Each structure stands twice: as structure tokens, then as C-alpha cells.
Amino acid sequence: MAQQKHRIFNDYRDLFWSLIPLVLISIVLAGAASQCSVATNGPTQGQIPHFDADAALRSDAESLSFPIRQPALPEGWVSNSGSRDTIVADGGGPVSTIGYLTPQSTYLRYSQSSATEVALARHVLGSRYATGTTDVAGQKWVLYTDPIEEPAWIADLGDVRILITGAGDEAAFTTLAEAVTTAQPLAKS
Question: Does the structure show a pLDDT above 80 at 33?
Fold first, then answer.
């Protein structure tokens, strides 16, 4: 009969060899439970969620006290998300947000709020500060850029502030900014 080693003589190799069966059993159980898979052709795009931006914006126009704009965007822009929030800090107010996938498969969202520019910027962007301005369709947009964060643009349209942020390039930001700037506020019924 083989003599067993005393515990004092066990080392990392013994630990390694004793863990191999446990790892193999875990992989077999996870595979049997269909909890893991191996992709051989890289990531694939999932189904884009549908969000009815028209209905959401009409509802916001009815219930919020500030004018809501619905931008007319070019073909290929797909609304995929929306939300409503409230900024409770000084200068705050309700916020209506719609998210879009651009034709280049990047994500942009725009928020409309009666909050001040400072309150809206702090709520969405944290501690970032304005770094410049740009003009789109006769409207001044304040730029918030940071090397490690997504860019953001904010415009003051009088009764409402608009904030655009996301992963789009400058052309996508300009397209959305122009569409929002030129859109007429939705009528209350």
C-alpha cells in the first residue's frame, strides 16, 4: 500500500493538481446548465430595443410645464430609450430624455429641462466645466469636453435648456443639435 505524504510536505503543485478536477466539474455543470457559451466569430449586434419617442414626448408635452421639442432627424436615427427625472438641487426641475442610435451605430441622447444650465450640467455631467462654444443653426451651444468623458453640448432656448451627450462624432452632435434647435415646441392638447 502506498504511503501518504505528511501534510507538511504538501506544496503548490499538490494544490494545483487537486483543483483541476474541481474546475473541470464546474465547467461541465455550467455547460449542462447552459450558463456559458463559446463564441467563435466575435461579438454580434443584438436586437435594438424599440422606444416610442413620439408617444413619450407627447406625454411629456402634456404633463411638463416647459416646452418639449421633438426633433425631425434624418433616416437611420433610431430612438431606443427614454426617461424622465427630476433635479432637486437649486435651480433644478424636471428632465425629459430621449436616446438615439445614429446611422453610424453610436449612441446620443438629449435632455430637455426647465432647470438652469448649471443645475442640468451638474446633474448629468458631474463636476465638468464648460470648455468652449459652438454655433449651430444660429443657436449658441456651450461645450463640455473632457479627455476621458463623453462630450456634451448645452443650449439655452429661453424656457428650456437642452443637453446633448453621448459617443457620437461632431457631425452627429451637429445633426441632433440642429434638429432640436429648429423643432417647434409640441402643442398641448
Answer: no
